[in-house]
């Protein structure tokens, strides 16, 4: 009886050990599974949060870029608008044909600045507005401005972020003295297979009523940093009597 009881006790003990082992293994398995699932879920949420933050940052950058574009448009428009409307008011009675031309050219510039919301634009398209700005100012000053305007594009499809070129050209007229024939202003836009180069130079206008263009230049630098990163060179300095600006862009593939 004792041996039988002992055998039964051994069997029960073996059964309990086996059951305990299976239960323990299952418990460990589910703990490991739950832990792995928790780690995976946490990793997934972390990645999702990082992705969301990245998207939000990109959206914020895009919004900032659009805001800066709007700022540049606003910077150009009032100056052109005020000066051109003053000229149109004067010319309407004495030179109606020039007043009509000024209205058409101003309308073209305004439409371009307000309606163009693309990230980049063909340089050739913006050069059309450069031509309008030059001719508007020549109308205002009775064709007495001294300026050399040179363009040579290797590729008609070369692009640039909007308003940069127009701002640089507008600054020439806004802050420059173009009435001295010994120091003509110059606007040069050239492209090769690898680079787009924009150069301007002008005799400074030291009229105290004209605000400095440094804010506009700083804003241009900010936009170039955002879009072109390290693929550009932008400089501006006095060279003798002339204020010179140079922008060199490495063209993207």
Q: What would you say this structure looks like, in words?
A:
The chain has 253 residues and is α+β, with helices and mostly antiparallel strands. It has helices at 2-94, 96-115, 123-140, 164-175, 214-228, and strands at residues 121-122, 147-153, 159-160, 176-177, 185-191, 195-204, 232-239, 242-250. Helix 1 packs parallel to helix 3, helix 1 (2-94) runs parallel beside helix 4 and helix 1 (2-94) runs antiparallel to helix 5 (214-228). It is elongated, with a radius of gyration of 35 Å.
How do the SSEs run, as a string of H and E? HHEHEEHEEEHEE
List how many beta strands DSSP finds. Answer: 8
Contiguous uncertain segments of 5+ residues? 1-5
Sheet having the most strands:
6 strands, mixed
Mean pLDDT: 78
Q: What is the beta-strand fraction?
A: 15-25%
CA radius of gyration: 35 Å
Q: Roughly how much helix do the residues carry, as a percent range?
A: 55-70%
First CA to last CA: what distance?
Answer: 94 Å
Shape: elongated
Q: Which class best fits the helix and strand makeup?
A: alpha+beta
Question: What is the overall number of helices?
Answer: 5
């Amino acid at each position: 009886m004792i041996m039988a009881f002992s055998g039964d006790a051994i069997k029960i003990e073996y059964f309990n050990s086996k059951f305990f082992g299976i239960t323990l293994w299952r418990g460990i398995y589910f703990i490991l599974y739950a832990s792995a699932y928790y780690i995976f879920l946490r990793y997934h949420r972390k990645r999702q949060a990082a992705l969301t933050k990245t998207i939000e940052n990109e959206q914020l950058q895009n919004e900032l870029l659009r805001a800066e574009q709007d700022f540049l448009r606003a910077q150009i428009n009032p100056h052109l608008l005020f000066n051109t409307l003053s000229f149109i008011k004067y010319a309407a009675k004495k030179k109606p044909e020039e007043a009509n031309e000024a209205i058409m050219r101003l309308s073209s510039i305004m439409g371009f600045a307000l309606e163009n919301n693309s990230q980049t634009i063909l340089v050739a398209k913006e050069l059309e507005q450069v031509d309008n700005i030059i001719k508007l100012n020549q109308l205002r000053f009775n064709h007495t401005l001294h300026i050399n305007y040179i363009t040579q594009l290797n590729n008609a499809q070369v692009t640039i972020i909007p308003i940069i070129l127009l701002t640089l050209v507008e600054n020439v007229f806004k802050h420059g003295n173009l009435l001295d024939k010994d120091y003509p202003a110059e606007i040069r836009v050239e492209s090769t297979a690898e680079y787009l180069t924009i150069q301007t130079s002008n005799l400074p206008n030291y009229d105290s009523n004209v605000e400095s263009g440094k804010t506009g230049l700083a804003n241009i630098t900010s936009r170039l940093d955002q879009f072109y990163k390290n693929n550009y060179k932008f400089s501006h300095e006095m060279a003798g009597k002339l204020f010179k600006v140079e922008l060199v862009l490495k063209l993207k593939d």
